[in-house]
Amino acid sequence: MGITEKINDLRDIKSWHGEMPVQYLYTYGIAGEKLFRAIKDEKKFLATKCPDCNFVYLPPRIYCQECFTNLENSWREVENKGEVHSFTIVYLDIENKPLDVPEVIALIRIKGTNGGFIHKLGEINPEKVNIGLEVKAVFKEKREGNILDIQYFKPV
Amino acid sequence: MRKVAVVGAGLTKFVRRSLETGKELSYEASKMALDSCGLTLKDIDCVVFGSAPDAFDGMHMKGEYMLDGSGGFRKPYMRSYVGGGTGVFTPIQGWYHIASGLFDSCLVVCEEKMSTLRPHPQGAFLTIFDHTLERPLEPNLLWIFALEMNRYMHEHGLSKKDIALVSVKNKKNALDHPCALLAQEITVEDVLNSEVLAWPVQRLDVSPITDGAGALVLVSEEKAKQITDKPVWIEGVGWNLETSYWTNRDLYYPKQVEYAARMAYEMAGIKDPRKEINIVEPYDPFDYKELHHLEGLLFCKKGEAPKLTREGVTKRDGDLPVCPSGGLLGVGNPIAAAGLMKICEIFWQLRGEAGARQVPGTPKRGLAQAWGDLMQVGTVIILGR
Fold it and tell me: Residue B196, by phi and psi: left (phi above 0), alpha (psi -120 to 50) or beta?
């Protein structure tokens, strides 16, 4: 093995930058299109339910992962409320700088579904968050049809 | 090794840009394949999923990400990837899952959604080139094909016209394929007058980016007999890799394809492929590639594939139908799904289910082949009744 430099302090490691100059433009898909249109136009959450497995998909899917039943005609509105299934409090940003206000990120299980969303919690003191806390979605005023149309979830 | 049969197949439409996500495309093809043989996901022991680079989707570990759409949820599952060769290699992996005796049924799914990439999937290919020797020259994928095509023409004294006939034939064949994106009746002149991309490659010599998915159901002999009276057997498989240095390859002849074919012929007990195989679906992302591959597959001597084409031998109603589906040039080129489309075609042809595309007679045996990786893998499957 050829060694061109010896580094004792890992912070001095040098690298060679290459890049892959591409960008991505994703489609929402059949299920995603419905979900985000309902959020944007009606501030509603839509889920699909497998009639055979009784599993309620949120985010919605057009098929049951268990039995492959087609769910394209099995849509239902669900509440925009749920409970904190687990959470973390984030203190540093991606560059390791302390955040002015710590952020609370939670897995929120939406009522009446077997799923939910990963999202931020707001209007709450991070020290007051607990597993099981009941929360509801706060939607943005100007919505564009994406996951950030939900501003955050706040305590009920 | 145990016998393995193909008993079901499904294919989505090949389109320029689908609303469906990759998972949804995979689901559509998988469900079609299962429905076609009356099985459900519960009958499937394991799943093999094939798709080309993660960079196409900008989704690292995309095989794992696609899991539920391809029926792999809570099952033994693996992702298969050998670049352009994936569509034929994925069923080979499905085959050894069953041939080994480990499983009795396997769902094989191949999916590609190329439209996501901007400005063009070419961007994802820039990093397949050697970072020291080639990237500083700012190469793109067409360079390789253009150099190969030129050398192939030079070696055998071929004209562009000889090669354009393949594009004309395949795009016409695709008129009868319900999934086709590029079906059209065109002339040799149209090909020769199309935009020059990288000489000698012109616009109509090459298949464009496409979205689509395909799926197959593979089962053991015992299961096959319970499911259908028309099983199609996997008689031989082969794959082989040539050096990754272009500088040390024969550009005019795909040796890796020959070695892959010899492996498959030996397994299938085939001595003379031209006499013993009735239909061929060689990999045709470019028109000259069909010719290149027919020679590598030993269907004729080096340099003689253009003559077979000129004489109509490779037409759908010719003595040796080649790409009766319409191939990648006619049906489209969603990388992994395109290779699998070729297996689907042989399956339907051998069962007499190819509709308007059905070749005359009652073909007994067909071969599908793909090619890819760093332009150096050959993958071959032989199917028989």
Answer: beta
At A31, list the tokens.
């299920």
| Shortest alpha-carbon distance between residue A124 and chain B (Å) | 34
Which of B42, B58, B119 lies nearest to residue A67, judging by beta carbons?
B42
pLDDT, position A10: 63
Q: Residue B322 pairs with which residues in a beta bridge?
A: B280
Nearest Cα neighbor of B263 from B297, B291, B287 is: B297
CB contact under 8 A, B131 and A66: no
- Residue that the structure tokens 């000489």 belong to: B199
ipTM: 0.88
Q: Tell me what the pLDDT averaged over chain B comes to.
A: 96
Whether A30 sits inside 8 A of B24 (CB atoms) is yes
The Cβ-side half-sphere exposure at A91, using a 13 Å CA radius, reads: 1
Whose structure tokens read 């030996």? B266
Query: How does DSSP assign B189-246, residue by residue?
Result: HHHHHSPEEETTEEGGGB--B-EEEEEEEEEEHHHHHHH-S--EEEEEEEEEE--S-G
pLDDT less than 50: residues of chain B: none
Query: Nearest by CB to A33, which of B19, B23, B41?
Result: B19
Backbone angles phi, psi at B146, to 5 degrees: -65, -40
Mind telling me how many Å the CA of A74 is from chain B's nearest CA? Answer: 16
The tokens describing B182, both together, are 């590029």
Q: Is B321 exposed, middle or buried, given 0-12, 13-18 or 19+ CB atoms closer than 10 A?
A: buried
Q: Do B123 and A24 touch (CB under 8 A)?
A: no
Q: Which of B69, B74, B116 sits opposite A25 (nearest CB)?
A: B116
CB contact under 8 A, B116 and A61: no
For A10-28, the pLDDT digits (tens) are 666 555 566 667 889 999 9
Rounded distance, CA B342 to CA B348, Å?
10
Residue among A22, A29, A61 whose CB faces B117 most closely:
A22
Domains of chain A, by residue range, sit at 26-155
Taking the Cβ of residue B298 and every Cβ of chain A, the question of whether any pair is shorter than 8 Å is answered with no
Contact by Cβ (8 Å): B319, B309:
no
CB atoms within 10 A of CB B302: 16
pLDDT attached to residue B348 = 98
Domains in chain B with CATH codes: 4-119+208-384 (3.40.47.10)
CATH hierarchy code of domain A26-155:
2.40.50.140
Question: Would the CB atoms of A65 and B73 count as touching at under 8 Å?
Answer: yes
Q: Which residues pair with A144 in a beta bridge?
A: none
Alpha helices in B66-117 (DSSP H): 86-99
- Residue ranges of A 90-149 with Cβ closer than 8 A to chain B: none
Query: Which residue has tokens 């001597």?
Result: B301
User: What amino acid occupies position B66?
Assistant: M
Within 46-85 of A, beta carbons closer than 8 Å to B belong to 61-63, 65-68, 70
Does residue B33 contact residue B8 with C-beta atoms inside 8 Å? yes
Regarding predicted confidence, which is higher, B118 or A92? A92
